[in-house]
Amino acid sequence: MAQYFSIFLVAMTALSGIVWLINVMVLRPKHNAQAQASAKADVIETPQSNIIVEEIGSFFPWLSAILILRSFIFEPFQIPTGSMIPTLLVGDFIWVEKYAYGLRDPVTRTKFLDVGSPQRGDIAVFKYPVDPTVDYIKRVIGVPGDVIRYHNNPTINAQRGIDYNKRLWIKTPCSTEQTTDCGQFKEIVHQEVNRGEFFRNNDQRYPMIRATEQLHDVKHDILITPASNPDMSPYFNDTMGEFVVPEGHYFVMGDNRDNSADSRFWGFVPEDNLVGKAVAIWISFEFSEDPNDILPSWLPRGIRFDRIGGIQ
After folding, report:
1. Catalytic one of 98, 127, 138, 277
2. Are the C-beta atoms of 120 and 220 separated by less than 8 Å?
3. Cβ distance 49 to 57 under 8 Å?
4. For a Cys staple, 240 with which of 134, 151, 274, 293, CB 3.0–4.6 Å?
5. Which residues is 252 bridged to in the sheet?
6. Partners of 277 in beta bridges
7. Active-site residue among 16, 83, 260, 263?
8. H or E element in which residue 61 lies
């Protein structure tokens, strides 16, 4: 849908620009010449066709500004699912920095200016590799050359039973500039913050663990489910996997680790699919999750002002 809107916006901007140019270069000078020739008349009428052209052409500066802003600077997105909980919630409206990963033509998405590339820990918006008409948002875990290892690592806890810790390791390649702290797998350790702030499918039987994870320079929270249930999610019982990130691709995961369709299941994100970097929440609406609510589910119940601001 976003891609179709981009094409529509470009077409409308081009059309209004052509009309504006015709008006400035042809119709307006012609009308001025006619007015001068009829200077002795009491009333000088503007042809109806000129008025219509003026109105259409007046949209050109506004459409141009919107096109430049949306295509090259910032674009608003809405979070529709819970795959990035607790960082992003359903109902969050975010700003995506379009120039963070290079400037692209809004129609063909061809990069014409290389500005930067995703870093580990970035929250990136990209075109879903399986269906490029759909926009996805996930956290960048691995960059080209990294080796990612992720799997369930059950441990026995006397009070809580089995904990599936979802342990993550990253092996970064060594370079001429960096010869230490590379070439070996390093575990990305997470520390538990709380249990029970979130529940799987709002089921009180399945409290989820909120934990803090340090992904190189980025500190952020993740959400994991400590109990196994075959009916919970197709993404919960993930098997051990090791992924070598190829050149020009990125490995991404949702912060809601047990409820996210990401690179563990459908593969890597090509560089050409990148849209931008999520940088801020500009508004956040709260919606009812009660199926018995008489009001429509899409109708906001309130604004979460405490969520407005930058994203980690």
Report:
1. 138
2. no
3. no
4. 151
5. 140
6. 97, 124
7. 83
8. helix 48-68
- For β-strands 92-97 and 74-78, DSSP reports them as antiparallel
To the query of whether residue 30 is one of the catalytic residues in this protein, the response is no
CA pair distance 133, 128, nearest whole angstrom: 7
What residue type is 42 in one-letter code?
D
Q: Is 83 a catalytic residue?
A: yes
pLDDT of residue 64: 76
| Averages of pLDDT over each 10 residues, the chain, 312 residues | 63 76 71 60 54 72 76 86 93 92 85 91 95 94 93 58 69 78 83 87 82 89 72 50 93 92 94 95 82 71 88 83
Q: Give the residue among 140, 138, 120 at the shortest CA–CA distance from 128.
A: 138
Taking the domains of the chain in order of start, what are their residue ranges?
Answer: 2-73, 140-310
DSSP letters of 110-157?
A: -EEE------TT-EEEEE-TT-TTSEEEEEEEE-TT-EEEEE--EEEE
- Model pTM score: 0.79
What are residue 219's DSSP bridge partners? 214
**Biggest CA pair distance of the chain:** 101
Q: What is the pLDDT of residue 232?
A: 47
Q: Which helix (H) or strand (E) holds 274?
A: strand 274-286
Q: How far apart, in whole angstroms, are the C-alpha atoms of residue 120 and residue 173?
A: 14
With 0-12 / 13-18 / 19 or more C-beta atoms within 10 angstroms meaning exposed / middle / buried, residue 74 is middle
Measured from the Cβ of residue 25, the count of other Cβ atoms closer than 10 Å reads 10
CA–CA dist 189, 195 (Å, integer): 17
Pick the closest to residue 283 from 95, 55, 107 (CA basis).
95
Question: By the 8 A CB rule, do 221 and 212 touch?
Answer: yes
